[in-house]
Automatic annotation (TrEMBL):
Residues 76-416 form the Peptidase A1 domain. Gene3D superfamilies: Acid Proteases (2.40.70.10). InterPro entries: Aspartic_peptidase_A1, Aspartic_peptidase_AS, CND41-like, PEPTIDASE_A1, Peptidase_aspartic_dom_sf, TAXi_C, TAXi_N. It comes from the Eukaryota. Keywords: Aspartyl protease, Hydrolase, Protease. Belongs to the peptidase A1 family. It comes from Stylosanthes scabra. This is Peptidase A1 domain-containing protein. SUPFAM superfamilies: Acid proteases (SSF50630).
Length: 421
Protein backbone atom coordinates (compact mmCIF):
# COMPACT_ATOMS: atom_id res chain seq x y z
CA UNK A 1 0.00 0.00 0.00
CA UNK A 2 1.43 3.39 -0.95
CA UNK A 3 0.11 6.94 -0.55
CA UNK A 4 1.74 10.19 -1.67
CA UNK A 5 0.85 13.77 -0.65
CA UNK A 6 2.13 17.10 -2.00
CA UNK A 7 4.44 19.02 0.35
CA UNK A 8 4.32 22.83 0.19
CA UNK A 9 6.36 25.46 2.02
CA UNK A 10 4.22 27.59 4.27
CA UNK A 11 5.59 30.81 2.81
CA UNK A 12 5.57 29.72 -0.85
CA UNK A 13 3.24 30.87 -3.65
CA UNK A 14 1.76 27.33 -3.76
CA UNK A 15 0.58 27.85 -0.20
CA UNK A 16 -3.02 28.96 0.19
CA UNK A 17 -2.10 30.45 3.56
CA UNK A 18 -2.49 34.22 3.64
CA UNK A 19 0.69 36.05 2.76
CA UNK A 20 1.38 37.55 6.15
CA UNK A 21 5.06 38.15 5.55
CA UNK A 22 7.21 36.40 8.11
CA UNK A 23 10.62 38.06 8.20
CA UNK A 24 13.79 35.97 8.02
CA UNK A 25 14.79 37.03 11.52
CA UNK A 26 11.35 35.94 12.81
CA UNK A 27 11.77 32.55 11.12
CA UNK A 28 15.21 32.15 12.72
CA UNK A 29 13.96 33.34 16.13
CA UNK A 30 11.18 30.75 15.96
CA UNK A 31 13.82 28.20 15.04
CA UNK A 32 15.70 29.10 18.24
CA UNK A 33 12.48 28.35 20.18
CA UNK A 34 12.11 25.04 18.35
CA UNK A 35 15.65 24.03 19.31
CA UNK A 36 15.09 25.07 22.95
CA UNK A 37 11.96 22.90 22.91
CA UNK A 38 13.93 19.91 21.60
CA UNK A 39 16.73 20.47 24.12
CA UNK A 40 14.29 20.68 27.03
CA UNK A 41 11.48 18.37 25.79
CA UNK A 42 9.18 20.02 28.34
CA UNK A 43 9.14 19.07 32.05
CA UNK A 44 6.19 16.91 33.07
CA UNK A 45 3.14 18.62 34.47
CA UNK A 46 -0.35 17.39 35.11
CA UNK A 47 -3.40 18.78 33.34
CA UNK A 48 -5.85 17.82 36.08
CA UNK A 49 -9.57 18.27 35.39
CA UNK A 50 -11.28 20.00 32.53
CA UNK A 51 -12.60 22.86 34.66
CA UNK A 52 -8.99 24.01 35.16
CA UNK A 53 -8.64 24.08 31.38
CA UNK A 54 -11.87 25.90 30.69
CA UNK A 55 -13.18 22.83 28.86
CA UNK A 56 -16.20 22.58 31.15
CA UNK A 57 -18.57 23.43 28.26
CA UNK A 58 -17.54 20.99 26.51
CA UNK A 59 -0.99 0.05 2.49
CA UNK A 60 0.85 2.89 0.61
CA UNK A 61 -0.09 6.67 -0.05
CA UNK A 62 1.71 9.89 -1.45
CA UNK A 63 0.78 13.45 -0.47
CA UNK A 64 2.30 16.53 -2.14
CA UNK A 65 4.49 18.31 0.43
CA UNK A 66 4.28 22.09 0.51
CA UNK A 67 6.53 24.45 2.34
CA UNK A 68 5.20 25.93 5.58
CA UNK A 69 6.90 27.47 8.56
CA UNK A 70 6.65 24.92 11.76
CA UNK A 71 5.16 26.69 14.53
CA UNK A 72 5.67 29.71 12.33
CA UNK A 73 9.20 29.03 11.09
CA UNK A 74 10.54 27.39 7.91
CA UNK A 75 8.30 24.36 7.63
CA UNK A 76 6.19 22.07 5.51
CA UNK A 77 2.58 20.92 5.37
CA UNK A 78 0.32 18.40 3.60
CA UNK A 79 -3.45 18.33 3.05
CA UNK A 80 -5.50 15.42 4.46
CA UNK A 81 -9.22 14.82 5.03
CA UNK A 82 -10.74 14.26 8.49
CA UNK A 83 -14.20 12.89 9.28
CA UNK A 84 -17.25 11.60 7.37
CA UNK A 85 -17.96 13.58 5.26
CA UNK A 86 -14.36 14.76 5.23
CA UNK A 87 -13.07 18.25 6.06
CA UNK A 88 -9.82 19.04 4.20
CA UNK A 89 -7.08 20.27 6.54
CA UNK A 90 -3.53 21.58 6.01
CA UNK A 91 -1.35 19.96 8.67
CA UNK A 92 2.31 20.63 9.36
CA UNK A 93 4.23 17.34 9.32
CA UNK A 94 6.72 16.91 12.10
CA UNK A 95 9.17 14.03 12.62
CA UNK A 96 9.93 15.44 16.09
CA UNK A 97 6.47 15.00 17.62
CA UNK A 98 3.98 12.18 17.96
CA UNK A 99 0.45 13.45 18.53
CA UNK A 100 -1.60 14.44 15.47
CA UNK A 101 -4.11 17.19 16.32
CA UNK A 102 -6.32 19.79 14.69
CA UNK A 103 -8.45 22.69 15.90
CA UNK A 104 -12.06 21.64 16.54
CA UNK A 105 -15.41 23.38 16.77
CA UNK A 106 -16.82 24.72 18.99
CA UNK A 107 -13.35 26.04 20.05
CA UNK A 108 -14.55 26.04 23.68
CA UNK A 109 -11.67 28.18 24.87
CA UNK A 110 -9.73 29.46 21.86
CA UNK A 111 -8.79 28.78 18.24
CA UNK A 112 -6.14 30.76 16.34
CA UNK A 113 -6.91 31.89 12.78
CA UNK A 114 -6.52 29.08 10.24
CA UNK A 115 -6.99 29.02 6.46
CA UNK A 116 -9.16 25.91 6.24
CA UNK A 117 -12.66 25.54 7.60
CA UNK A 118 -12.36 24.34 11.23
CA UNK A 119 -13.25 20.66 11.63
CA UNK A 120 -16.57 20.10 13.44
CA UNK A 121 -16.82 16.66 15.11
CA UNK A 122 -20.60 17.02 15.58
CA UNK A 123 -21.01 16.90 11.78
CA UNK A 124 -18.99 13.68 11.35
CA UNK A 125 -20.57 10.22 11.60
CA UNK A 126 -17.20 8.55 12.29
CA UNK A 127 -16.04 10.64 15.31
CA UNK A 128 -15.87 9.25 18.85
CA UNK A 129 -14.27 10.39 22.11
CA UNK A 130 -11.91 8.17 24.10
CA UNK A 131 -12.70 7.78 27.81
CA UNK A 132 -10.16 8.70 30.44
CA UNK A 133 -10.20 5.18 31.88
CA UNK A 134 -9.00 3.73 28.55
CA UNK A 135 -5.39 2.54 28.21
CA UNK A 136 -5.29 4.65 25.02
CA UNK A 137 -5.67 7.73 27.22
CA UNK A 138 -2.87 6.84 29.63
CA UNK A 139 -0.27 6.57 26.84
CA UNK A 140 -0.61 10.33 26.29
CA UNK A 141 1.76 10.99 29.21
CA UNK A 142 4.79 9.67 27.33
CA UNK A 143 3.66 11.07 23.96
CA UNK A 144 3.04 14.67 25.09
CA UNK A 145 5.03 15.02 28.32
CA UNK A 146 1.78 15.89 30.15
CA UNK A 147 -0.54 13.62 32.12
CA UNK A 148 -3.99 13.50 30.52
CA UNK A 149 -7.01 15.13 32.15
CA UNK A 150 -10.56 13.81 32.50
CA UNK A 151 -13.79 15.63 31.63
CA UNK A 152 -15.89 15.62 34.82
CA UNK A 153 -19.27 14.80 33.22
CA UNK A 154 -18.50 12.94 29.98
CA UNK A 155 -15.33 11.24 31.32
CA UNK A 156 -13.68 12.08 27.98
CA UNK A 157 -9.87 11.93 27.82
CA UNK A 158 -8.21 15.36 27.64
CA UNK A 159 -4.75 15.85 26.10
CA UNK A 160 -2.46 18.85 26.32
CA UNK A 161 0.75 19.50 24.41
CA UNK A 162 3.13 22.46 24.34
CA UNK A 163 5.79 23.43 21.81
CA UNK A 164 8.47 25.90 22.87
CA UNK A 165 7.30 28.98 24.75
CA UNK A 166 3.83 29.94 23.68
CA UNK A 167 2.31 27.40 21.32
CA UNK A 168 0.02 24.71 22.67
CA UNK A 169 -3.09 22.64 22.01
CA UNK A 170 -5.52 21.23 24.59
CA UNK A 171 -8.65 19.22 23.79
CA UNK A 172 -10.31 15.83 23.50
CA UNK A 173 -8.35 12.72 22.55
CA UNK A 174 -10.52 10.98 19.95
CA UNK A 175 -11.00 8.45 17.13
CA UNK A 176 -11.79 9.54 13.57
CA UNK A 177 -11.51 8.51 9.92
CA UNK A 178 -8.50 10.05 8.19
CA UNK A 179 -8.57 10.32 4.38
CA UNK A 180 -5.12 10.38 2.82
CA UNK A 181 -6.11 10.24 -0.87
CA UNK A 182 -9.38 9.51 -2.70
CA UNK A 183 -8.73 5.77 -2.45
CA UNK A 184 -6.92 5.57 0.87
CA UNK A 185 -8.44 5.98 4.35
CA UNK A 186 -7.36 5.15 7.90
CA UNK A 187 -10.24 4.27 10.26
CA UNK A 188 -10.24 4.79 14.05
CA UNK A 189 -7.23 7.10 13.81
CA UNK A 190 -6.26 8.54 17.22
CA UNK A 191 -5.91 12.32 17.21
CA UNK A 192 -6.35 15.42 19.34
CA UNK A 193 -9.49 17.51 18.80
CA UNK A 194 -8.21 20.90 19.99
CA UNK A 195 -10.57 23.16 21.98
CA UNK A 196 -7.90 25.52 23.33
CA UNK A 197 -5.15 26.25 20.82
CA UNK A 198 -2.65 29.03 20.65
CA UNK A 199 0.55 29.78 18.81
CA UNK A 200 2.36 30.37 15.59
CA UNK A 201 1.11 27.53 13.44
CA UNK A 202 1.06 29.92 10.49
CA UNK A 203 -2.55 29.37 9.48
CA UNK A 204 -2.26 25.57 9.29
CA UNK A 205 -5.06 23.56 10.94
CA UNK A 206 -2.69 21.61 13.21
CA UNK A 207 0.04 19.03 13.05
CA UNK A 208 0.64 15.43 11.90
CA UNK A 209 3.05 13.61 14.23
CA UNK A 210 5.59 11.34 12.50
CA UNK A 211 7.70 10.49 15.57
CA UNK A 212 8.50 7.06 17.04
CA UNK A 213 5.93 6.84 19.85
CA UNK A 214 3.04 4.28 19.54
CA UNK A 215 0.60 7.21 19.19
CA UNK A 216 2.32 8.65 16.07
CA UNK A 217 0.86 8.35 12.57
CA UNK A 218 3.76 6.05 11.59
CA UNK A 219 3.05 3.55 14.36
CA UNK A 220 -0.76 3.76 14.13
CA UNK A 221 -0.62 2.86 10.42
CA UNK A 222 2.10 0.18 10.78
CA UNK A 223 -0.09 -2.61 9.34
CA UNK A 224 -0.94 -0.50 6.29
CA UNK A 225 2.31 1.35 5.49
CA UNK A 226 4.81 -0.94 7.29
CA UNK A 227 6.38 1.90 9.31
CA UNK A 228 7.99 3.37 6.20
CA UNK A 229 7.74 6.92 4.91
CA UNK A 230 9.83 9.21 2.75
CA UNK A 231 9.79 12.84 1.76
CA UNK A 232 11.41 15.33 -0.47
CA UNK A 233 11.37 18.93 0.75
CA UNK A 234 11.08 21.42 -2.11
CA UNK A 235 14.32 23.30 -2.83
CA UNK A 236 12.52 26.66 -2.96
CA UNK A 237 9.26 27.88 -1.46
CA UNK A 238 7.67 27.94 -4.92
CA UNK A 239 8.33 24.25 -5.65
CA UNK A 240 6.30 21.25 -4.50
CA UNK A 241 7.81 18.20 -2.82
CA UNK A 242 6.14 15.02 -1.59
CA UNK A 243 5.50 12.96 1.52
CA UNK A 244 4.97 9.24 0.81
CA UNK A 245 3.83 6.48 3.13
CA UNK A 246 4.58 2.85 2.39
CA UNK A 247 7.35 1.34 0.30
CA UNK A 248 9.82 4.06 -0.71
CA UNK A 249 10.18 4.98 -4.34
CA UNK A 250 12.67 2.38 -5.49
CA UNK A 251 15.96 4.01 -6.20
CA UNK A 252 19.50 2.77 -6.53
CA UNK A 253 20.90 6.04 -5.23
CA UNK A 254 19.40 5.86 -1.72
CA UNK A 255 22.14 5.06 0.80
CA UNK A 256 21.12 3.83 4.27
CA UNK A 257 22.59 4.61 7.67
CA UNK A 258 21.32 2.81 10.81
CA UNK A 259 19.19 4.83 13.23
CA UNK A 260 21.29 5.56 16.27
CA UNK A 261 20.28 4.27 19.65
CA UNK A 262 21.71 7.42 21.27
CA UNK A 263 19.72 8.55 24.28
CA UNK A 264 19.29 12.02 22.73
CA UNK A 265 16.62 10.59 20.42
CA UNK A 266 14.36 9.80 23.39
CA UNK A 267 11.02 8.20 22.54
CA UNK A 268 10.03 10.56 19.71
CA UNK A 269 13.07 11.61 17.70
CA UNK A 270 15.02 9.70 15.07
CA UNK A 271 18.67 9.39 16.12
CA UNK A 272 21.64 9.50 13.73
CA UNK A 273 25.37 8.86 14.05
CA UNK A 274 27.38 11.67 12.42
CA UNK A 275 30.99 10.55 12.07
CA UNK A 276 32.57 13.44 10.18
CA UNK A 277 32.17 16.45 7.88
CA UNK A 278 34.21 17.38 4.78
CA UNK A 279 34.35 20.96 3.44
CA UNK A 280 35.83 21.74 0.03
CA UNK A 281 37.57 18.36 -0.17
CA UNK A 282 39.20 18.50 3.29
CA UNK A 283 37.93 16.53 6.24
CA UNK A 284 37.40 18.75 9.29
CA UNK A 285 39.75 17.97 12.21
CA UNK A 286 36.78 16.98 14.40
CA UNK A 287 36.51 13.51 15.94
CA UNK A 288 33.35 11.40 15.79
CA UNK A 289 33.23 11.60 19.60
CA UNK A 290 32.49 15.35 19.32
CA UNK A 291 29.14 14.43 17.72
CA UNK A 292 28.45 11.43 19.95
CA UNK A 293 28.82 13.43 23.19
CA UNK A 294 25.35 14.95 22.87
CA UNK A 295 24.09 12.57 20.19
CA UNK A 296 22.37 13.64 16.97
CA UNK A 297 18.84 13.59 15.53
CA UNK A 298 17.22 14.41 12.19
CA UNK A 299 14.25 16.80 12.46
CA UNK A 300 11.85 18.06 9.79
CA UNK A 301 10.77 20.93 12.05
CA UNK A 302 14.17 22.56 12.74
CA UNK A 303 15.26 24.88 9.94
CA UNK A 304 18.99 25.39 10.56
CA UNK A 305 21.32 22.47 11.42
CA UNK A 306 22.82 22.83 14.91
CA UNK A 307 26.35 21.50 15.42
CA UNK A 308 28.57 21.11 18.48
CA UNK A 309 30.45 24.45 18.86
CA UNK A 310 33.79 22.67 18.26
CA UNK A 311 32.54 21.24 14.94
CA UNK A 312 30.81 24.48 13.93
CA UNK A 313 33.92 26.61 14.36
CA UNK A 314 35.97 24.19 12.20
CA UNK A 315 33.21 24.13 9.53
CA UNK A 316 32.89 27.92 9.52
CA UNK A 317 36.61 28.49 9.26
CA UNK A 318 37.00 26.05 6.32
CA UNK A 319 33.92 27.47 4.59
CA UNK A 320 35.07 31.10 4.99
CA UNK A 321 38.43 30.17 3.52
CA UNK A 322 36.71 28.66 0.47
CA UNK A 323 34.48 31.74 0.08
CA UNK A 324 37.20 34.35 0.69
CA UNK A 325 36.83 36.02 -2.71
CA UNK A 326 33.19 37.00 -2.05
CA UNK A 327 32.30 40.17 -0.08
CA UNK A 328 30.94 39.51 3.41
CA UNK A 329 27.48 40.74 4.48
CA UNK A 330 26.10 41.45 7.95
CA UNK A 331 25.04 38.49 10.11
CA UNK A 332 21.40 37.39 10.24
CA UNK A 333 20.21 36.40 13.72
CA UNK A 334 22.02 33.11 14.58
CA UNK A 335 23.74 32.97 11.15
CA UNK A 336 27.16 34.62 11.43
CA UNK A 337 28.69 33.83 8.00
CA UNK A 338 26.90 35.77 5.25
CA UNK A 339 27.85 37.07 1.79
CA UNK A 340 26.71 39.75 -0.63
CA UNK A 341 26.44 37.92 -3.95
CA UNK A 342 24.58 40.66 -5.82
CA UNK A 343 27.52 41.25 -8.17
CA UNK A 344 27.82 37.62 -9.36
CA UNK A 345 26.03 35.54 -11.99
CA UNK A 346 27.68 32.29 -10.88
CA UNK A 347 29.57 31.43 -7.72
CA UNK A 348 31.79 28.56 -6.62
CA UNK A 349 30.78 27.07 -3.28
CA UNK A 350 32.91 24.70 -1.16
CA UNK A 351 31.06 21.37 -1.17
CA UNK A 352 29.94 20.14 2.25
CA UNK A 353 29.74 16.36 2.74
CA UNK A 354 28.29 14.72 5.85
CA UNK A 355 29.49 11.28 6.90
CA UNK A 356 27.07 9.05 8.80
CA UNK A 357 27.31 5.65 10.55
CA UNK A 358 27.77 2.69 8.22
CA UNK A 359 30.18 4.68 6.01
CA UNK A 360 27.40 6.64 4.27
CA UNK A 361 28.37 10.01 2.78
CA UNK A 362 25.81 12.64 1.75
CA UNK A 363 26.73 15.63 -0.43
CA UNK A 364 24.70 18.72 0.44
CA UNK A 365 23.18 20.64 -2.48
CA UNK A 366 23.83 24.41 -2.72
CA UNK A 367 20.19 24.80 -1.58
CA UNK A 368 21.15 22.75 1.47
CA UNK A 369 24.18 24.91 2.27
CA UNK A 370 22.76 28.45 2.29
CA UNK A 371 19.90 30.30 3.88
CA UNK A 372 19.06 33.08 1.41
CA UNK A 373 17.49 36.22 2.91
CA UNK A 374 18.22 38.15 -0.30
CA UNK A 375 20.94 38.14 -2.97
CA UNK A 376 22.75 40.70 -0.78
CA UNK A 377 22.57 38.44 2.30
CA UNK A 378 23.26 34.76 1.60
CA UNK A 379 24.24 32.93 4.79
CA UNK A 380 25.86 29.63 5.70
CA UNK A 381 22.87 27.64 7.05
CA UNK A 382 24.51 26.19 10.16
CA UNK A 383 24.66 27.40 13.76
CA UNK A 384 26.46 26.27 16.90
CA UNK A 385 24.72 24.74 19.90
CA UNK A 386 25.43 26.30 23.29
CA UNK A 387 27.61 23.38 24.30
CA UNK A 388 29.21 20.24 22.82
CA UNK A 389 26.93 18.17 25.09
CA UNK A 390 23.74 19.52 23.43
CA UNK A 391 22.07 17.28 20.85
CA UNK A 392 23.17 17.91 17.23
CA UNK A 393 20.16 18.52 14.94
CA UNK A 394 20.23 17.81 11.19
CA UNK A 395 17.71 20.43 10.07
CA UNK A 396 15.45 20.90 7.08
CA UNK A 397 17.58 23.34 5.03
CA UNK A 398 20.25 20.61 4.79
CA UNK A 399 17.60 18.07 3.74
CA UNK A 400 16.45 20.12 0.73
CA UNK A 401 16.53 18.23 -2.61
CA UNK A 402 17.41 14.97 -0.80
CA UNK A 403 15.01 12.05 -0.82
CA UNK A 404 14.88 11.13 2.89
CA UNK A 405 13.59 7.61 3.61
CA UNK A 406 12.57 6.52 7.11
CA UNK A 407 12.50 2.72 7.25
CA UNK A 408 11.46 2.56 10.89
CA UNK A 409 10.79 -1.18 10.89
CA UNK A 410 14.20 -1.81 9.28
CA UNK A 411 15.93 0.54 11.76
CA UNK A 412 17.53 2.67 9.06
CA UNK A 413 17.42 6.09 7.43
CA UNK A 414 18.11 6.57 3.72
CA UNK A 415 19.39 9.61 1.81
CA UNK A 416 18.99 9.85 -1.96
CA UNK A 417 20.97 12.73 -3.49
CA UNK A 418 18.86 14.32 -6.23
CA UNK A 419 15.92 12.16 -5.16
CA UNK A 420 13.36 14.88 -5.80
CA UNK A 421 13.66 15.04 -9.57
Amino acid sequence: MKTTLDVVHKHGPCSKHKKTQTSHSEILNLDIERVKYIHSKIPKNSLGHDDELGLKQLDSATLPAKSGSLIGSGNYFVVVGLGTPKTELSLIFDTGSDLTWTQCEPCVKSCYKQQDQIYDPSKSSSYSNITCTSSLCTQLSTATGNDPGCASTSKACIYGIQYGDSSFSVGFFSHERLTMTDTDTVDNFLFGCGQNNQGLFGGSAGLIGLGRHPISFVQQTAAKYHKTFSYCLPSTASNIGYLSFGAARASSYVKYTPFSSNSAAGTSFYGLDITGITVGGSKLPVSASTFSTGGAIIDSGTVITRLPPTAYSALRSAFRQGMSKYPPASRLSILDTCYDLSGYKTITVPKIIFEFGGGVTVDLAAAGTFYVASVKQVCLAFAPNGDDSDVTIFGNVQQKTLQVVYDVGGGKLGFGVGGCK
